[in-house]
Amino acid sequence: MMKPLEEIVKPSLLKRLLKERMAISLFVAALLFIQVGLFRTDIVGMNKHDYAIGKMKWKACADMVFAGDSRVQECLSPEAMTAFFPDRQLRNYAFYGTSYHPKYYDAIESVLDPESKHPAVLLGITPNSLTPRNFKINGLKMEMDKYESLTPAVKHIGVPTSLLPMTPSVFLQNLVGKDASEYYRQVHADGWVSVVKPIVPTYSLDEYRRAFTDNYYDDDIVEALLTRVKTWTRKGIAVYGFRPPTTPAMVELESKMSGFEEEHFRQLFETAGGKWIEVDPFGYLSYDGSHLHRDGAIEFSKDIAQKITEWEVATISGNTPENF
Length: 324
Fold this sequence. Notes:
Rossmann fold, alpha/beta, about 50% helix, 8 strands, 15 helices
């Protein structure tokens, strides 16, 4: 009869063998994690932590600042607009879940270069950005709190993409080599987030139905925004506003549930000194029925840059552009 392993191998030797096997297993697991992380396809370019850290450090660096929530963050590419503004610094300073909050206005202005010859702010107005719930959530504050919680070393050198946490689904997608051309979210140093996803036009509708349940366009938030538009205009800062393109179904939902009336808001905005830019509301590709796909965003960025350029030329000549 064979003796138990414990009687054949000395306890100290058995313990050492088990430790060595465990160490080898952990080493192999770490290599697999790093390997998958290095080639992960859900993050292309900068990782989201370095992206957010970079945005928090922006001070007095831009001639034109884009502001708003996730629709603005994903629909305006500064790089795509540089051909129209070759001598200016453009920054997309929009954030997910951001409302037009007094702290946000101050942060926007802090990004503008006080020595700029053409200081401008481009505000993307969505119904959700003018609601009390988003005002309370305040996406900018969340990013600022995250930044302040970082160690000085992380603030300085950033976070390696391969060490960022992955959800189980993302881990499996990367493990089996999911094609990055089918799905990725790329963050850019100029603040834009470009997204490539399969097109599902109704994907976000339920999310926005929930968002506008007992949560409506707020007059006090709008009044504070208009007051800041007046202040910026008096300082010589050009203030442009627009409603980011989306889909007919989303606009219908927002009109029914949020209480936002674009034409009424436009009149208030222009009375405060802002310049409202009319855009084709449904002329650009959306991947989820709310946000623009990368290709739609690049096209839209060029179109709105053209409109701003035309407005600037008309302003110099003392005329107001038509069809704006």
